[in-house]
Amino acid sequence: MAIEVPRGFLIVLSGPSGCGKGTVLAKLLAEREDTVLSVSVTTRSPRPGDQDGVQYYFRTHEQFEQMIADDALLEYACYNGNYYGTPKAAVEEHLAAGRNVILEIEVQGAEKVMAKWQEPYVSLFLAAPSLLELESRLRGRDTEKEEDIRNRLAAAREELQHVSSYQYLVVNDEIDLAAARIHTIIEAEKLRITRNKNTLEALEVC
Ligand code: ADP
Ligand code: 5GP
After folding, report:
1. Would you say residue 120 has pLDDT above 80?
2. Mean pLDDT of the chain
3. Kind and range of the H or E run holding 86
4. What angle do the packed helices 175-190 and 21-31 form, to 10 degrees?
5. Whose C-alpha in 14, 38, 89, 206 is 20 to 30 A from the C-alpha of 26?
6. Residue of 116, 122, 126, 104 lying closest to 195 (CA atoms)
7. In a mutational test of the pocket of ligand 1, which residue from 50, 137, 151 has the highest number of ligand atoms less than 8 Å from its CB?
């Protein structure tokens, strides 16, 4: 009898701009094969070094609005004057193939997904150890103009008010530690009774 591949699960991850989401996720994903990052679509301009289809699919407002009209997005939101959204088809493809999918998205979009997702999922909020440290990281990255940095810091205060919508809080004090904490959360989720149908069958548990 063919063994059914257990379906992957959704991991909703948010955190203020500059807290280290990209940095921690790069480490985490390099260390595990069972989990992938959903590549979002955005209307914001690429940063130096950004490649279309890698960090984001960079699209015009018109193209983005066509994706909304085509119902091609699992969720979308407007952040700092630009659209950001999650393409639906790729998420479904990965989950069906048994891969967990991380949605690295801001809180409005995350709350939309959490409200409508019909399967068990994991949600976590990544934070810098303090607002002062967040500001220092955002400035240190040196990718945004002063006005954009101020807007992102104001957005961070607002986003932190939504932390209780999430199941887990992960502090990114050190990159390795933060990645290890997320590994732990994923490993625990994989051990749920409801995710271990094949093992239960082998143990002849109905
Ligand atoms: P985000 O994706 O959340 O916007 P980034 O991953 O771009 O954030 O990180 C913002 C800046 O902070 C980068 O310059 C990155 O190198 C730095 N950074 C990330 N994590 C840490 C950490 N634990 N300690 C110190 N600096 C960090
Ligand atoms: P950045 O411009 O720094 O790459 O991203 C800005 C914000 O948009 C971040 O908080 C990031 O998590 C969020 N974001 C990225 N992709 C998506 C998406 O597909 N949907 C939503 N709702 N937010 C996203």
Report:
1. yes
2. 95
3. strand 82-87
4. 60
5. 89
6. 122
7. 137
CB 85 within 8 A of CB 76: yes
| CATH number of the domain residue 183 falls in | 3.40.50.300
pLDDT at residue number 98: 96
Beta-carbon contacts of residue 99 (< 8 Å; ≥ 6 apart): 8, 34, 35, 36
Residue 108 alpha carbon, nearest atom of ligand 2:
22
Asked whether residue 193 is assigned to any structural domain, the reply reads: yes
The predicted model scores a pTM of: 0.95
Cβ–ligand 2 contact at 123 (below 6 Å): no
Q: Which domain holds residue 119?
A: 10-38+99-202
Confidence tier at 45 by pLDDT (50, 70, 90): very high
In a domain, 140, yes or no: yes
The verdict on the CB of residue 125 being under 6 Å from ligand 2 is no
Q: Nearest residue CA, atom 7 of ligand 2?
A: 106
- Determine which helix (DSSP H) or strand (DSSP E) holds 79, and give its type and residue range: strand 73-79
30 is a domain residue? yes
106 ligand 2 Cβ < 6 A: yes
Structure tokens at 182: 């997320």
Q: How far apart are the CA of 35 and the centre of ligand 1, in A? A: 21
Residue 145 domain-assigned? yes
Q: Of the bound ligands, which one is closest to the alpha carbon of residue 18?
A: 1
Residue 125: is it exposed, middle or buried by C-beta count within 10 angstroms (0-12/13-18/19+)? buried
pLDDT at 150: 94
